[in-house]
Amino acid sequence: QVQVVESGGGLVQAGGSLRLSCAASGSIFRIGAAGWYRQAPGKQRELVATITSEDSTNYADSVKGRFTISRDNAKNTIDLQMNSLKPEDTAVYYCNAELRVIHRKYWGKGTLVTVSS
What we know:
This protein has 117 residues and is mostly beta strands. It contains no helices and eleven strands. Strands 2, 4, 5, 6, 9, 10 and 11 form a seven-stranded mixed sheet that branches. Strands 1-3-8-7 form a four-stranded antiparallel sheet, with no helix packed on it.
């Protein structure tokens, strides 16, 4: 059974960095398009960054210049490098990944990022 698994969350001080990773287990297919989303307590889930199967990227205005989404072909992961973190970046971060060939999308269960002031 295919599972999308996020990793790399944790507690960091404001101004610090974290790198999140999104992997698809149980599948022979590689990740194509994908997106990182986040949901803070009491708020709706929001888009953070996306990457197309051709590696075009897009970012929410709130993270432009601080976050970078990228693909690691060797590991078949979609990574999110987060720099200059702010307390308002605190949220559960989710990955939504589409597998190439079969074009099915999967959500991960999320990884918690906490930024202390």
